[in-house]
Design brief:
Strand content: over 45%
Radius of gyration: 21 Å
Number of helices: 1
Shape: elongated
Number of strands: 7
Strand order of the largest sheet: 1-2-5-6-7
Largest sheet: 5 strands, mixed, barrel
Distance between the termini: 80 Å
Helix content: 25-40%
Order of helices and strands: EEEEEEEH
């Protein structure tokens, strides 16, 4: 079997293909069981993804993404990452900032939903009393 220097990577979210490259030398990703490093000629593998940093080393550049949830498949020198969310991050600090912003958005959305539910319940009770 021929040993290759690179493998291909496709990073996909529900919105679009975030990244597609045929010259990846290494990637590190957080799976549901911990961090995983992938080099060319990696054995076939599948895993659920956790929330964390995806580091990609290509020929001349290194990219980092914040990835939350999804699945990873490694097969025949091809890696496909189906991520619930993938946001490009320049540093660990930016990764933490993005994570905290997303958490705050989720908290705000939950509060609004709770207020909407309470308002609807109140209107229903008022209309039943009439």
């Amino acid at each position: 079997m021929e040993k290759k220097e690179y493998f291909s990577l496709k990073l996909v979210t529900p919105e679009k293909i975030e990244l597609q490259s045929d010259e990846v030398k290494f990637l590190k990703i957080r799976t549901s069981r911990g961090d995983l490093g992938i080099l060319p000629n990696h054995t076939n593998f599948m895993s659920a993804l956790g929330e964390g940093l995806l580091s990609i080393k290509q020929n001349k550049e290194e990219l980092q993404y914040f990835v939350s949830g999804g699945f990873l498949e490694v097969s025949n020198n091809k890696v496909i990452i189906l991520a619930e969310e993938a946001i490009i991050a320049e540093s660990e600090e930016e990764f933490k900032r993005i994570k905290s912003e997303n958490l705050q958005k989720a908290i705000d959305a939950k509060k609004k939903e709770d207020q909407d539910i309470l308002g609807t319940k109140k209107r229903l009770q008022d209309s039943l009393r009439r």
